[in-house]
Amino acid sequence: MFFSGDPTSRKRVALGGRSSKERDTQKLMEQTRMERDRRLWQRKQNASAIKIQKCFRGRKAAKAERAKVREQFLSRYGSYCQNAERCCFCPDSDYFRQLFFFFNARNAGDFTILVETCRGILNLVRDNDNIVSLFAGVDYSAVLALVDHRVKNLAYICILSLYQNSRSHFRQQLLVPDADSVMQATVLLEAVAALIDPKLPWACKAVSYLCQKNVFALFREIVLAERENAKTSSSTGNLSGVEHITGILISHSGQNSCSCPNVDPKFCFSSQMLTVPFLWKIFPSLKGVFSTQGLSQHYIHQMSLCLQNHTNLLPSDISAEYPGYACLLGNILEAAGVTLSQPACPFEMAVDLAAVSTFLLEALPPIKSSNAAMIEEDADSADDIQIVLDKDLERQIITGIDSRFLLQLPCVLLQINVLFGGISAVGDDRSVVAIGAACALLHVTFNTLPLERVMTVLAYRTELVRVLWEFMKNCHDNKRWSSLPEHLSLLPGDSPGWLLPLAVFCPVYKHMLMIVDNEEFYEQERPLSLRDIRSLIVILRQALWQLLWLNPTAPNASAKTTSRENTSKQNPNESIKHRVSIVASELLSQLQDWNNRREFTPPSDFHADGVDDFFISQAVVDGTKANEIMKLAPFLIPFTSRVKIFNSQLVAVKQRHGPHGVFARNRFTIRRDRILEDAYNQMSALSEEDLRGLIRVTFVNELGVEEAGIDGGGIFKDFMENITRAAFDVQYGLFKETVDHLLYPNPGSGLIHEQHLQFFHFLGCLLAKAMFEGVLVDIPFATFFLSKLKQKFNYLNDLPSLDPELYRHLIFLKHYQGDIAGLELYFVIVNNEYGEQTEEELLPGGRNLRVTNENVITFIHLVSNHRLNFQIRQQSSHFLRGFQQLIQKDWIDMFNEHELQLLISGSLESLDVDDLRIHTNYAGGYHKEHYVIDMFWDVIKGFSLENQKKFLKFVTGCSRGPLLGFKYLEPLFCIQRAAGNASDEALDRLPTSATCMNLLKLPPYRSKEQMEAKLLYAINAEAGFDLS
Asked: Active-site positions, per UniProt (predicted)?
């Protein structure tokens, strides 16, 4: 470039960001790396090709050599081994060496050679030849290693050939009973059985070799391939070859003298064969072999050790309907019935069996009974993935845990003589292990299987309740609960020791109490004495308080039932705590019912010690621990505190609906002589919201004239008391009386009133309105009807109130010592309503089902259920619907039936004149020390109880005082002076009242006699509100 005349040089900037020299370096490095990778890949490719060629050449050479040896073998011995002689099987012969070298099970010619070889061996053995001398010659010890090698390899290739050819032309021969000895499969199976005969000196090594070569896995595949054929052919009862060989193998492995090395548990008999669905149907004789004590004890103990290590040893599931653990459980339970029935069944085996069954049951999805499944079908979420077992497999498991199993296993574990009721003395550690194993199994059983069959057997045919109670009582007295979790894998070590025993004891004892009669419970004190029950109440109360208040379970523990399986697997400790809190509260509630029938312990024994004002304040707040306790175990809280909570809930609802008015928009005009019809017509037209509002009433007397008086609440209270008296009158036909004059729905009400169900709905609304407004009504309901307001079932012990004669007959049946079948009773019941007799079946086909000693408890339960629940189900259901329009279920669930009656009617204790005097105000010149007031209270105290109730109705509109005392009367009772001057004309006036204000207008009478006469006339006049 020519010089431009500018002495300065201009810098050149590369817009690419880096110099071309740098770019060239990077490109060179990248090319070098790629070239290096290409050379490395090429070297690997060459090395792989060499290995492949080497392998191919080796295999080709081996194949050629095998073909050469095979040709030599055939030319020497013939295609069917027709030239083979006895000497061919001796140690010096190369017969087996050549056969093992070229043998290929998939080669038809080789397979034929193997079959003919086995046939020849069997023929020689049948000819009274010694099989040991056949293989070893004169001295077995000199050629021991060679003979053992030949025998175990020959046995293995026979089984391997069967497996690899199981889908070929002779597949049907494998499991078919061995009637035709010429079948090829039969020859091979017979040969294997002969080679591993337990009497032979090499039996141990041969069996060990076969087990190490996983022959049980091969047998499993063979059996599964032919399972459907085996189901149809096993009915002949003959042994098949596979069954016979399996029996020899498991018998040898289970012997104490066996010196075989340990086999991988994943390929042992338990893991491979016991997971075949319905194994004992395919191999019925094998069940008897396995069920011998020593053998089953060996394999069950082996399984328990594997489960303790939480090792998954089971093969892949056949299908979703046949999971391996479920098939294993079904086969174990089916065989356990035979094992446990044998004399002197070992305690250790029972512990292992309980542990294995517990582990497998825990893995099962819950199995519901058909009724429960139909009830809960609609409740299941579509998103929940349910594991559905095959119905036959479910039936096998349920049948396995039958009455015999439930009787035998606890008997062995707990050392109980069921017939004589004796308990043998066992050591502390042994008893803890036994109780822990039994409770773990039963707890998981309760969560998995239908409860009705299990509970009935445990409650009525075993001494489980008494044994568990003795154990718990000793632990409680000696304070040694902590030792139990150490022996259980089901619970962590820091869990309370009483947790698992209570999880089993509570539901079983609760089920027992359903059919226990009053004489057994109170007089005979069976199964527990009243003293023991008082101790039990203390244990349950303390356990509940610890679970619910001191150490509550996690929130997810109270999830819906459909997620129970996942919850228990994720956190079994929390799941058991939640379960115990439910069953313990149910049992305590039931014991409280027994205490209400006949008091055997102070009611305060059911109250927790930690209930204070803070707890009460939290109980009304949703989502708090105290609120959860109120829902689950309300009896822990004193009755008066629960009444306060109930009243506060009513006040809160009234305040939410209060704006509708100070002025009631619902006004009833009621004819006193047509009170029921008028009330039904007018109240039935109200909406649920209107029912919560104020209702004002105007009465019309018999002459058609409206009565004087403005309803400020008092007339309404009078209306409620009169309408309830009329509606629940037995003369009206909707209700009947028990022998104790307690009311319950008339089962034949439909024969009297066409619209009887609508009337029951109305009566439910009516009772709810009385409770909603705090009006106590004198209606004594039967306990079994009040339980319907709580949506509970009634049981045998509720029957004496309804039908004492039927109750006596059922108790006679329960304790009948002879053959009940001879009484000619069937599962039917005769109803007799107003001369119409109808016969109903208690069970489908009950007319043909005779009552026997085995099903008499079920019969008693069904009869009680029919009379106490079924007959009044429609009336109770409609009554409940009307009742729940105003009173929520959560409010009622705070109280038991006895307490609910107090909420409805109050108690005589509330008519305490001294309490009324303390909580009385005075006006118009009266004061508490005024001589007229002293005279007044003396007169009231001298009244009979009936007149005191009439006086209370006269001044408040209700004959019952507030449930918690007159302190809670709103407004407080007040006595006002009437007739300002004390003239004779003024003193001749009657006392009057304003019930809306709980006000008595009392003239200043001069004497007690005059005051008593005037008061009695006023309260007995029954003049409505005309005296006002």
From this structure: 996
Q: What is the 3-state secondary structure (H, E, C) of 292-352?
A: CHHHHHHHHHHHHHHHHCCCCCCCCCCECCECHHHHHHHHHHHHHHHHHCCCCCCHHHHHH
Q: How many residues does the chain have?
A: 1028
Q: Are 955 and 993 in contact (CB under 8 A)?
A: yes
Which residue spans within 765-881 are E strands per DSSP?
828-833, 836-841
Q: What is the pLDDT of residue 229?
A: 55
pLDDT in tens, 972-1006: 999 999 876 666 676 788 898 887 788 899 999 98
Q: In what order do the strands lie in the sheet with 973-977?
A: 920-923, 973-977, 999-1002, 992-994
d(CA 480, CA 469): 15
What residues are labeled active site?
Answer: 996
- Tell me what pLDDT residue 865 has: 93
Q: Tell me how far apart the alpha carbons of residues 995 and 957 are, in angstroms, rounded to a whole number.
A: 6
Q: What is the largest CA-CA distance in the chain?
A: 152
pLDDT at site 535: 94
Q: Is the dihedral of CA 845, 848, 854, 859 positive or negative?
A: positive
What's the token pair of residue 353? Answer: 């069996």
State both tokens at 922.
Answer: 């005075």
For range 515-527, the mean pLDDT = 88
The pairing of strands 735-737 and 920-923 is: unpaired
In Å, what is the CA distance from 566 to each residue of 362, 364, 365, 439?
Answer: 11, 11, 10, 21
- Write out the two tokens for 911: 């008519």
Alpha carbons 711 and 991: distance in angstroms, whole number: 19
Distances (CA, A) of 873 to 616, 739, 847, 876: 36, 21, 23, 5
pTM for this one?
A: 0.78
**Coil, helix or strand at residue 928:** coil
The pLDDT tens digits of the residues spanning 289-327 come to 888 867 888 888 888 888 766 667 788 888 888 998 999
Buried b (16+ CB within 10 A) or exposed e, 503-534: bbbbbbbbbbbbbbbbebbeeeeebbeeeebb
At residue 276, the pLDDT reads 92
Rounded alpha-carbon distances, angstroms, from residue 929 to 332, 914, 922, 932, 979:
86, 15, 10, 9, 20
Backbone φ and ψ of 787, nearest 5°: -65, -25
Contact of 239 with 285, CB cutoff 8 Å: yes
Rounded Cα gap, residues 398 and 401, in angstroms: 5
Contacts of residue 1003, defined as CB under 8 A and 6 or more positions apart, other chains included, come to 977, 978, 979, 986, 987, 989, 991, 1014
